[in-house]
Amino acid sequence: MQRPRTRRFLILLGKSILAVLSLAVVPLLYAEGYAIWYAEYHLGLPTEAEIAALPATGHLCPLEAGSPYVALADMPLLLRQAVIASAGADFQTRPNLVLPAMAAAIVKGDGRPDTRITFAVTRHCLHALAPDCCRGLDWHIGSTVFMGRLERTLSRERILDAYLNDSYLGRNAYGVAAAAPAHFGKPLTGLDVGEIALLIARFQTPSPSERDSARRSYILDRMLTAGLIDQAQATAARAAPLPPIDGAPRKP
């Protein structure tokens, strides 16, 4: 006699949950609409048409004149793969960013999509294209809207290209082509596994420090987990000496 009641209760509970979730979508859509309107008319963000008109090759949003550029296809494959493994494993496969989807992912416990690569390009391009655009809370609204516009307008390859060529990597070097000789005294194509790992660490911490060994090991672990290198390569890279700071040699 209890089973029909239990079943009716579960059905009612399920319908109630669906109703609540449906109501939750409305404020999310309203929030997205308001954020887009605010960014469009109050902040003056670059539009998708303006983003689409940016150069198809070369520096996407240059800030520093004279920085060398190297096409994505001409970069070491290991570098490109390791950057994605360490800074956005789902970068090439996840859907484009929209505010309701990001909020829904957080509500469901999936977490916010990993946006480190797109966010770095967003920060750089906002400074270059609209230097007086955003401050304080406006920055958070503007950067979120602009990230979505970048991903809806540009290919993931173009965004990755800009990330690798336009990011500041310390020692007055913008992009990996300038950072390789600045940090290691050799061209980008001459870097070994450990140097590639340390170069990738420069995206988060541009200045050399005593934590470089730990940062290099972290990137090597991500490369190893992704199957980009084997255990012997990781062990050898960890044992290699670190580049000197101000001429002083360092141990691994």
From TrEMBL:
Pathway assigned in UniProt: Cell wall biogenesis; peptidoglycan biosynthesis
InterPro entries: Glyco_trans_51, Glycosyltr_51/Transpeptidase, Lysozyme-like_dom_sf, PBP_transglycosylase
Domain Glycosyl transferase family: 68-223
One Pfam family in the UniProt entry: Transgly
Keywords: Transferase
Protein name: Penicillin-binding protein
